[in-house]
Amino acid sequence: MTIPESKQDRAARRAAFLAACGRDPASAVFVAGDASPRTYYRVTAADRTVIVMDDPPPGEIPAFVTLGRFLAAQGLSVPAVLAEDRANGFLLLEDFGDASYGRMLTADPAQAGPLYALATDALCHLHDRLDASADPLPEVPPYDQDFLSFEVSLFCDWFLPAVGQPLSAPDRQAFLDLWTPLFRHLEAGPQTLVLRDFHVDNLMVLAGRDGTDACGFLDFQSARRGPLPYDLMSLMEDARRDIDPALRQAMQDRYLAARPTVEADTFRRDWAICAAQRHTKVIGGFVRTWQRDGKPHYLGHLPRVWELLDRALSHPDLMDIRAWFDDHAPTALRQRKLQ
To answer: At 248, phi and psi to the nearest 5?
Structure first.
């Protein structure tokens, strides 16, 4: 069992990495963190700024490096790796700046159309390249029935106990069994490289670059091989941001128009299944992040996620799942205050 480092020990290890890279540790300024233990720091030098990714072992540093090289080879904009210490969980990265999609949309909501169109086009570019390539995908785990089921089990294991409605083992298994035919649909449908966290907080606007090169990709190290619609669905059904349903539909239509070989009805059905699965996972995951990691602010997004889940469950192929939620997580339970 790995014993977590103290903050002081981790800071000392990060400073040693920076010193070995010829950077001043005193110039490191925290810029971002997320629901994982991973954090990011901006380091200033005379010539330019760079970013330190601090991802304590076992972490995902090797996957980030491998997948970053692969995505760059497909013509996507990902941060260049300038130095690495895999054993201790550090990377020195190209700095993509502060123009994240999230910041841009907050500053000017009218940019939503062009920004989401750019991200959709970048995803089309990636999927076209992968379909046309004779080279295999990088070695990533499958987004298969086992993993999809594990993710939806977070709802049973974290949300329901938190609202005082834990399931018995047989009832928990019955819930998972309802998903089995849906996940079989996904496994039988078109597959691609799924980045999994494709949303506005992991996308950057890169000045001075043209076309889809202007869309910078971050946080792709957890990628898997899985259902074709997943990443676009993740972008357009964002747990942390309200998105106009008309814009969501427009981006789905844009993707299908750009890739006419994709069968539209199958894509839309698989989108709904992916959406229901992801939102179920996220509800449980946000509660886990609160209870296990002491990060309660994610709970504020739960009303939006419930609304997205309810919308996904309106698809005719999801009626059995919808009935289960109506019975086991009615409106009063969904609205129960958790803090």
So the answer is: -60, -45
Question: What residues make up the domain containing 216?
Answer: 101-334
Task: Please check whether residues 79 and 19 belong to one and the same domain.
Answer: yes
Residues 14 and 159 in one domain: no
Pair 118, 226 in one domain: yes
Structure tokens at 41: 């720091």
Please report the pLDDT score of residue 3 as a whole number.
62
This model's pTM is above 0.85: yes
The 3-state secondary structure of 286-323 reads: HHHHHHHHCCHHHHHHHHHHHHHHHHHCCCHHHHHHHH
CA 214 from chain centre, in angstroms, equals: 20
Number of compact structural domains in the chain: 2
Q: With 60 as the cut, is the pLDDT of residue 138 above it?
A: yes
Residue type, 296: P
Mean pLDDT along residues 301-308? 97
Number of C-beta neighbours around residue 146 at 10 A: 11
Write phi, then psi, for 293 (nearest 5 degrees).
-110, -5
> Rounded CA gap, 236 and 289, in Å?
23
Residue type present at position 225? R
Q: How far is CA 149 from CA 266, 277, 307, 319, in A?
A: 21, 9, 21, 18
